[in-house]
Amino acid sequence: MSYAKPKVAHPAIAKNELGYTRRDYEGSISTLCAGCGHDSISAALIQACYELDLPPHQVAKISGIGCSSKTPTYFLGASHGFNSVHGRMPSVVTGANIANKDLVYVGVSGDGDTASIGFGQFSHIVRRRLNMLYMVENNGVYGLTKGQFSATADFGSASKGGVPNPYDQIDLIQMALQLGATYVARGFSGDKKQLVPLIKGALSHPGFALIDCISPCVTFNNHEGSTRSYEYVREHDVPVVTADYVPYAKTIKVDYEPGTGTSVKMHDGSMLNLHKLEEDYDPYDRKKAINYLLDCQEQGKIATGMLYVNPDVTDFHDILETVEEPLSSLSYDRLNPGADALESINASFR
Amino acid sequence: MPDLKSVNELVLRFANVNGSGSASANSLVGKSFFRMGLPVGPKNIFPSNIQGLPTWYEIRVSEKGYTGRRGSVDVMVAMNSQTFQQDVADLVPGGYLLYDSTKPLNPHGRRDDINYIGIPLTQIAVSKYEQARHRQLFKNVIYAGALSALLDIEFDVLCDLLGEQFRGRDKIIESNIDALQTGYDYAKRYYDCPLPVRVERRELVGDRILVDGNSAVGLGAVYAGATVAGWYPITPSTSVIDAYTKYASKLRTDETSGRKLFGIAQAEDELAAIGMVIGANWNGARAFTATSGPGISLMSEFLGLAYYAEIPVVLVDVQRCGPSTGMPTRTQQSDLMACAYASHGDSRHVLLLPATPDECFEFSMLSFDLAERLQTPVILVSDLDLGMNDSVSKPMTVAPDYVWDRGKVADYEMLENGFEFYRYLDIDEDGIPYRTYPGTHPTKGAFFTRGSGHNKYGGYTEKGPEYKENMERLLGKFSTAATLVPEPVIEDKGRPDAVLYFGTTLEPMVEAIDELNQQGYSLDQIRLRGFPFSEEVWAFINRHDRVLVVEQNRDAQMRSMLMIEGDIDPARLISVTQYDGMPVTAEFLVTAITGHLSDDPAVSQRLSA
Lengths: 350, 609
Hints:
The complex is a heterodimer. By secondary structure, chain A is α/β, with parallel strands linked by helices. Chain A contains 13 helices and twelve strands. Chain A has helices at residues 37-51, 67-70, 89-99, 111-116, 119-127, 172-179, 192-204, 230-236, 248-253, 286-298, 316-320, 332-335, 339-348; strands at residues 59-63, 80-83, 104-110, 132-138, 141-142, 148-149, 183-188, 208-214, 237-246, 262-265, 271-276, 302-309. In chain A, the strands form two sheets. Chain A has a ten-stranded mixed β-sheet with strand order 2-1-3-4-8-7-12-9-11-10, sandwiched between helices. Chain A is globular and about 75 Å long. Chain B is an alpha/beta fold. Chain B has four domains: 6-198, Pyruvate-ferredoxin oxidoreductase, PFOR, domain III (Pyruvate-ferredoxin Oxidoreductase, domain 3), CATH 3.40.920.10; 211-393, 3-Layer(aba) Sandwich (Rossmann fold), CATH 3.40.50.970; 413-484, no CATH class; 489-608, 3-Layer(aba) Sandwich (Rossmann fold). Helices cover 40% and strands 19% of the residues of chain B. Chain B contains 20 helices and 23 strands. In chain B, strand 5, helix 2 (84-89) and strand 6 form a beta-alpha-beta unit. In chain B, helix 4 crosses helix 6 (170-190) and helix 7 (213-223) crosses helix 12. The chains are: A alpha/beta, B alpha/beta. Chains A and B meet through strand 2, helix 3, helix 5, helix 12 and helix 13 of A and strand 9, helix 7, strand 11, helix 9 and helix 10 of B. Strand 2 (80-83) of chain A pairs parallel with strand 17 of chain B, so a sheet runs across the interface.
């Protein structure tokens, strides 16, 4: 490993229910640019996993290629990680998930990785209802190749050199809604308070959860004229529905009274408390959500928060009708049909 | 009229229109020979089409056990007006043409040296059946009945086969047998039955089976303990997954819960298919996919990742005619180099080369063991001829003491007991490191898998010497692979010249070698079964002056691989290629091989001595 952090923790440091410190959820030191939004997302992931009491080694982190896809090295150092092929994270997670349904899957991708080269795979993993968190670290730009527009860049948004984008943008949120995703949220890397509960909700959601997280590229897309800069997003961000995530254990301990809005009971018993900020927004109505998002897009507003949730989900393993145990755990004895069966198959070919 | 006479030696070909329901009648006839104890080689020659284009079904029957294509046709069942002229031309002098005589034959192109057997099939079908669909389907069964009389195929055998095929549906069985009887009676009444070309029961097949290679591969995956398949439909590999699905559903469903001990995902394309296989194998399941040439092209990037990140992959390539879309329903051995050296950068892959269905089964199982032992992609390179046609084969067997080989995996106990795990460290000096499955241990054994530069400890690197050290180890691992792939099958009697071949060239080669021997050409033989090539392959080649390398592609790809890998003098490797998309015939092999050898004065001298 090129970079290592000191491993000794202060004895008084806070621990979660499993006895892990926050440090146990960290990874190696980031090699991204100072101020990169992606590092804030890694920090939010670390906090969410720590607060959810997830055993780090029960999480699998899988990514494609690009700046965003490098980040799985920067969180959950005790988890297996897989930095795969550009745009193909969804297929690798699919295979991993079929093999072992018991791990928690965090897929990390970027806007180029998901909306361009991986657009096909993105669409199909939504259709498959794979139980995972699909995190898009969306900066609207190709950073490693020095600043080309990506497919999520807004029409008319200016590049660093001042050239406006002549193409319409792909909105991954709208795509996911159309394709039947059951947990769809948009975050902003600069708003950790909003992002952490969204991640916790997504990790507890037993189906496909997308977080499209606006994450400014400080080097290539943080200038005047860009619609993915810190400044622009802060000015145009419309938090539609904010969420508090209350884990199962705490819902029992305290008789939680939700403030404004409604509560969504997740499958594991935890609660997602939603606070509607926009009167006419309904996070349970897919069609209305799509219309609302189209309106926002026309007005140049960026709707953030918990945009759609349906806790009643089927997961890919329900479709596949697999057994309860992870397929990877089955012994050869259980998998081997035996010599008699083979002999009767041979006989069927005589 | 030339006199054509034979018992249990014949080539029977059916010429039909695709989608006319002929396949089941034709395969019924094919299987009936097998049931009469005769070695048989049926070949389906079909178009890339659902309905309307020409399709043929050719059956070789041979008491001598030659089940490959011989070349030329003895008996033609010509049911397709589009190809009628060509079908007539393909008959040997003295051969027999069975045709529908409802309409008079076009006198143009009429041959005087063949026998015409007209049966008014359409007329009979129209008078017997009301529905258009029945008329079409039963016409095929009627000619099968006529063949029973003409070739002396046991009528009871045909009835038994129909009974098995439609078990429990007595009305269908009855009407099919009635149609068979109609054809049989007509032929008996109007022609001298049987013809001088005919069959007779023998006991020559023993416990052997008649099965297609793709079924054997799919079943092999079930017996290997594969639990995950990711795939995308493509001819001619689809039936591998169909077979896996069928057998896994039957044999691997949990009896109490009714739930499955396997997961099959039809992917959006071949890229996703192999991505799933890589993800599943990385996560500790045995996973595989099947594809054909175009899929290999698409999967190449991921194959490079699996090679470099050292993830087991089982990939079945059922080759078809390339390049590009090529002729999708015709056979070839033209993906060798695309498979062996798939992906950018320095990468190479282990290939297994089956020639028979029992080898398809055996190598299918073996590919999972090797992929996990070597932690690398293993490509089972089959072809359309082997994959989709039935062949007579030894039964499929698993050694009673078989235990799957999961390779070097550091588990919880090992890690707990202080095993010092580094992902790419070669502690056994065979080039193969240890791996861990995700989720194994709370604090030990986690690693980061990446296709970017890494050192032996699994860390990211851009340092030249560290990168190189790892690449050199991968070469060492490839040397280990050469000791693990199936050894070649060799017949070496110290002759100066030899023939080298692999895969489906086996069937016609058996016949060609006998014929060459009769003509006085004596050759040693080697049949390759794996890549990288083992020491035994090099020793064999080095013992011979010249080696004729026979393969089913234009560019002599196997010959190139021998030159690349073994630094063999090209002058000693003589290329014999056949790549028109049809399975190789013994006639072609004899002509091509004698053509090369008779040019050589030394051989001519030996022959005349």
